[in-house]
Amino acid sequence: MNDKKTILTGDRPTGKLHLGHYIGSLENRVKMQHECNQFIMIADMQALTDNAENPQKVRDNILELGLDYLSIGLDPKINTIFIQSSVPELSDLTMFYLNLVTVARLQRNPTVKTEIAQKGFEKSLPAGFLIYPVSQAADITAFKAQLVPVGEDQLPMIEQTNEVVRRFNHTYNSNVLVECEAVRSSVGRLIGTDGKSKMSKSLNNTIYLSDSSEEVKKKVMSMMTDPNHLRVEDPGKVEGNPVFEYLTAFDKDKEGLGDLKTRYQKGGVGDVEVKKRLIEVLEEFLTPIRERRAEFEKKPEEVMNILKEGGQKARLVAQQTLKDVRKAMNINYFND
Amino acid sequence: MNDKKTILTGDRPTGKLHLGHYIGSLENRVKMQHECNQFIMIADMQALTDNAENPQKVRDNILELGLDYLSIGLDPKINTIFIQSSVPELSDLTMFYLNLVTVARLQRNPTVKTEIAQKGFEKSLPAGFLIYPVSQAADITAFKAQLVPVGEDQLPMIEQTNEVVRRFNHTYNSNVLVECEAVRSSVGRLIGTDGKSKMSKSLNNTIYLSDSSEEVKKKVMSMMTDPNHLRVEDPGKVEGNPVFEYLTAFDKDKEGLGDLKTRYQKGGVGDVEVKKRLIEVLEEFLTPIRERRAEFEKKPEEVMNILKEGGQKARLVAQQTLKDVRKAMNINYFND
């Protein structure tokens, strides 16, 4: 291809993207699209591992994710945006890798262990869920991705992938598979509007990229601030105050923000003033995103077509990897 | 297609086929090829689940199996003879089904439990091996097989497959997948030449379909008989006597065999006489098989081409099933 490094990133199609996703990873994708070969995968197969009873949710959110990606300015001409199940080679690779990973090792994977506990699977753990780290190893290696942006909690998945890579290359005396590197997002996660924890659909403390002006206004006006900042004249805290955290993340007028913080800490600035500023800032950020979204919402077939073409592009790469893998194993029976 | 029932059968490419395979299943395949749509699968993906370190063994035995099949008279025009990994749709189906089966259920599968113990896997159990019953469910359902010939020890696999079928059809409110029925071989398994247990490569008590006249002669002459039949004039036992068991399985002259048995039981027939008769019978059985094998051994590319074309035929069927499965789950995003 070229000298650019290859990134694999993506999302499970189980919900719309919110400001937390933007700060945690989407912003970085928009930047990296010019610097890297970026594969952006809508991980429907992975989403099905714990949504097998509800594929409709997965289906519906594929278009939503496509709209989110395009509306934040990810360019399908320079990125490969695709649906995981459009690349059946990933399933074949998973099957080959599964023979190189023990059940005990999967059961020890810290990310999977935590998620099993969170989801209350225990006795009813679907086999597909236990093995999804191997499927992820297939995703990463299929595109020979060198960089994989992850949160702290996903680091064990990268370790698991690199174990598969080393085991494969060692077993088949090859150098077909490429180890990858975790890229940690420099910005922390965005706190929820309730100030209690990270933004999460299930906690109902999110602002979506697709929220209307009305919704954003309503959500910001009911946000938590400093609980001890009761009267306008009281000094207020800026750290841990969600409204200021959002301003820090999104306000481009750093000088004005610094001034606002100083005045708030001193006392004499009401929460309403700060919230109004946040609404202004978010409107400025969201307006072009909404406009692009509105355009694409008029032509969902075009969005799906972008995903389809992305799948075809992704397949060509994965097909080559599968070919290399079978050759390394010497099971390319028909030399094709 | 037609009104014929569909059978899925096959072998793991881990060794050449022997007389035990013939009596246990190959004979039946030769008969059924005229009565059913028969899919005969060389299960390389399954063989790799416990041979990941040695894919060369799997590779080498693919041609051997192909030669064995053709030499016993399985006709590639009326059967679909193919290599499992030529049908990548099987991997996709496996991935979908894995979400419908719990890890606990797989760990309870009696066949898998026994095999894990036999192979001494325990802590080092490859994930691919644990889940192979699900991959088998994919094989069976991909071709909508109604009949699956199995030995006693494989009955739990059929149960597991039918559980997947019911779970899938129930979850996605469909009737896409078809339950299958185990067909038990009417003839028991053939005892080994050592008289101790069933014929098995690892016990070195086999006569291969591809053995030469010399080899067959040598193996028969050193076969176990009735250990108490020491002198020619002693009465001998016919039951549990491997030489007579083989004669019962292969001698077409039932009257002559009945007579020989009576004389042996009475006393006055030496083991050498019985063994010579068995050599005669096996030569008659193996000669046409050897002749066909010799022909095909001259053109291994033709054999591989038969397997390749079989794979293409098999894929067409599996592709339709995968399409139906995705439609039932409503994840056929591109309506294709």
Shape, per Cα inertia axes of chain A: elongated
One letter per element, helices H and strands E, the order of chain A comes to EHEHHEHHHHHEHEHHHHH
Oligomer: homodimer
Mean pLDDT across every amino acid position of chain A: 94
CATH superfamily of the largest domain in chain A: HUPs
Q: Indicate the CATH class of the largest domain in chain A.
A: Alpha Beta
Give the CA-CA distance, first to last residue of chain A.
22 Å
Give the amount of beta strand of chain A, in percent: 5-15%
The portion of residues assigned to helices of chain A is 40-55%
How many separate structural domains of chain A? 2
* Class computed from helices, strands and strand pairing of chain A: mainly alpha
The CATH architecture term of the largest domain in chain A is 3-Layer(aba) Sandwich
Per DSSP E runs of 2 or more residues, the count of β-strands of chain A stands at: 5
DSSP summary: helix tally of chain A? 14
What is the name of the CATH topology of the largest domain in chain A?
Rossmann fold
Cα gyration radius of chain A (Å): 22 Å
> Unreliable runs of chain A, pLDDT <50, ≥5 residues?
none
Main sheet strand line-up of chain A: 1-2-3
* Largest interface: chains, residues each: A-B, 51 and 51 residues
